[in-house]
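TASK: fixed-backbone design
INPUT:
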């Protein structure tokens, strides 16, 4: 009878996040998420981005946020440079309790606010109690 031998695979690495498909420098925007009975509100800081350069998509249970930041016009010599130019990227898994057809977003002063309403069945309901 032949002996079974398990051979470890060389160089195999568990992938913990989706593989990036775009080149260049990407920053992870700072995010706050709030929840109430009606849904979730997500706010993202996107300094330097313009509303027309923000791409927000919902696809197959995932909310994808991509924002392109255009390089700033400069005049003169840099004395101090702490602000790096790069694009923003972030992805979120969205639970089925969110009504994807009603997702909406606003952008003002470099802050993106995304409204993620819950489906009616997921919202809490007040149950009335009758006295007898």
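OUTPUT:
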């Amino acid at each position: 009878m032949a002996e079974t031998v398990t051979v470890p695979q060389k160089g195999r690495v568990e992938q913990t996040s989706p593989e990036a498909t775009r080149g260049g420098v990407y920053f992870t925007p700072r995010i706050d998420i709030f929840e109430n009975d009606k849904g979730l509100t997500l706010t993202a800081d996107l300094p330097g981005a313009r509303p027309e350069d923000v791409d927000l998509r919902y696809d197959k249970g995932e909310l994808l946020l991509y924002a392109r930041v255009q390089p700033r016009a400069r005049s003169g010599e840099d004395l101090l440079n702490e602000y790096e130019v790069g694009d923003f990227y972030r992805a979120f898994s969205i639970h089925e309790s969110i009504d994807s057809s009603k997702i909406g977003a606003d952008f003002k002063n470099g802050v993106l606010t995304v409204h993620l309403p819950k489906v009616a069945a997921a919202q809490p309901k007040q149950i009335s109690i009758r006295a007898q």
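COMMENT: The CA atoms of residues 41 and 48 lie 22 Å apart.
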